[in-house]
Amino acid sequence: MLPFVNMSGDPKQEYFSDGLTEELLNSLARINELQVAGRTSSFYFKGKDVDLGTVAHKLNVAAVLEGSVRRSAHTVRITAQLINAVTGFHLWSQTYDRDLGDVLKLQSEIADAVAGALKVTLLGDTVAKIELGGTHNPDAFDAYLRAEKAYRAVRSARSDQDAIAAYTKAIHLDPGYALAFAGRSLALGEIAGEFTNEPADVRPTFQKAEADAQRAIELAPELAEGHLALAGALFFGSLDFTRGIEQYERAVALAPGNTQILRIYGRTAVQMGRTEAGIAASRQAVVLDPLSARSHDELGQALFYARRHEEGLAALKDAITLEPGYERAYGFAGLHYYALGNLQSARASGEVCPENYRCQLCLALTYKKLNRHTDAEAAVTKLTTLGGDTLAYQYAEIYTQWGDTARALQWLETAMRLRDPGLASLKTDPLMDPVRREPRFQAIERELKFPE
After folding, report:
1. Which of 361, 359, 357 is nearest to 348 (CA)?
2. How many CA atoms are closer than 13 Å to the CA of 162, on its beta-carbon side?
3. d(CA 93, CA 278)
4. Do 112 and 168 share a domain, yes or no?
5. Rounded CA gap, 275 and 385, in Å?
6. In a domain, 185, yes or no
7. Which of 214, 229, 255 is a domain's end point?
8. Among 29, 314, 405, 414, which has the highest number of CB atoms less than 10 A from its own CB?
């Protein structure tokens, strides 16, 4: 599916045409009988003059859905057409004029028409599945699309806060809007896990995320996004890995074509020791969203915890090729190089993004191995500036690799006291191998109650 073109004559309405495209894409992805390319890959071609045959080849699809959106004060006109990517012939086309309050129903109409044109036999109540968790309130839908735009923007505390404000507005306008609760939960979880520098603020933010996720599931028990949000809050907020992985698995079962769910489940499953299931999910995310740097990056992370470093490097190089500014990929690429003993490449990769904590972690380890002790200490100081005690687990990794077992275990105990989300990595983290036989380490591992 390609992004629908904004025909409203107002560039400020781009969020609406893009958001509606994404909602339609999600609707199609909920039909298990269809294989739908993921959002990032679909939007990769926005504004580019590329023939449909090339699009289909890069996305590994047989048909392409494209169209346009024209929005007025109270109505919307959507023109959609489905094209056979091999022959170029139209399989189906239709123009819809609807009130803005009918957009949710329109999504299911279009999805049903596309499935029919592709001669797919739908099983079960597809309409109910597509409309699950949505809203018939046009103002709430508009706020939700604005929230999604902010959440999908460059990852930052500011964009997440903007998303939370818009999700909150959507919920205020429609208190039964389950997708908005799930979206707000995910944004809160990201702030807690990625952008909170005060340890005392992490747990309360995760608690808010968990409450929103629970509310989403109460409103729509079969909503995969609700279970995904709850999984993250349990896994990284409560460090309840058993219930967390169960919720991830529930989300995958409900939406096996959702690339966001697949890639997050893939990495966490490997961290829990469910290696083959996790890597399979991560690879499926890449198949469905091949032009997404994040999908390749998450696969590279999963392969790090699986200790498959050559494969992991290949995945991360793909991520960097797709998006040279994707900082996280450089940090994990550096860690793969470090694990392989290629210290100069590890150093070069880590030095690309000095403001990224993963890159500084890589440099702290690599400089020490290169006997650049002052630079290694400077990398730890930089980490302290970037995250303070919220990076307690990363300090434990560093001192473990430096051979300072006492300080490593001290930081692990600090991580436990602060309920550091980084502890989710402990079970399979290669960097922690030197201290695994230490009684204090084993006591912490038992206390975390990892699933079998």
Report:
1. 359
2. 15
3. 39
4. no
5. 34
6. yes
7. 255
8. 29
Tokens coding 427: 């079970």
CATH of the domain at 113: 3.40.50
Closest by alpha carbon to 394, among 361, 427, 435? 361
Helix residue ranges, H only, 272-388: 275-288, 293-305, 309-322, 327-340, 343-350, 357-369, 373-387
Order of all β-strands in the sheet with 5-6: 5-6, 63-71, 75-84, 90-99
> Does any domain span residue 407?
no
Check: CB of residue 1 under 8 Å from CB of residue 21. yes
Least Cα distance to 181 among 205, 156, 217 occurs for 217
The SS3 of residue 449 is coil
Residue 109 lies in domain: 5-127
Which of 346, 263, 357 shows the shortest CA–CA distance to 309?
346
> Is residue 132 within 8 Å of 23, Cβ to Cβ?
no
**Whole-number CA gyration radius for the chain:** 23
Helix ranges (H only) for 49-156 are 52-59, 103-117, 126-131, 138-152
Reduced to 3 states (helix: H, G, I; strand: E, B; else coil), residue 298 is helix
Q: Which string of b and e fits 201-228 if b means at least 16 CB within 10 Å?
A: ebeebbebbbbbbbbbbebbeebbbbbb
Per-residue model confidence as pLDDT tens for the chain (452 residues): 888 888 887 888 888 888 888 888 888 888 777 788 888 888 888 888 888 888 888 888 888 888 899 988 788 888 988 898 888 888 888 898 888 888 888 888 888 888 888 877 655 566 677 788 999 998 999 999 999 988 887 667 788 899 999 999 999 999 999 999 999 999 999 998 887 777 778 889 999 999 999 999 999 999 999 999 999 999 999 999 999 999 999 999 999 999 999 999 999 999 999 999 999 999 999 999 999 999 999 999 999 999 999 999 999 999 999 999 888 899 999 999 999 999 999 999 999 999 999 999 999 999 999 999 999 999 999 999 998 999 999 999 999 999 999 999 999 999 999 999 999 999 999 999 999 999 999 999 999 999 98
334 in any annotated domain: no
